[in-house]
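User: Sequence in, structure out. Go.
Assistant: Echoing your sequence, followed by the structure tokens.
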Amino acid sequence: MLKYNVMKYYGSKEGYDADVLIDSKAVLGKDDFVATGVLTYALGDIIEVELPEYDIFQLGDKAKVTVYTKSAACL
């Protein structure tokens, strides 16, 4: 049986790309309103941010998102 040496840290020195995103701080901006929260889910181009002002943002609204991870800020 052959054993392959798989790179544990692919794409980021801190860990898997999705692992770096989870529990990161996120800032969402819409028109004249800014909210901060915690990123709880990331898969492909879908992310979920938990924030107290959830009723301000509706599905399909355009918003600017900045995620502050352990490695760097992602826009």
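User: And one key feature?
Assistant: The first strand starts at residue 25 and ends at 30.
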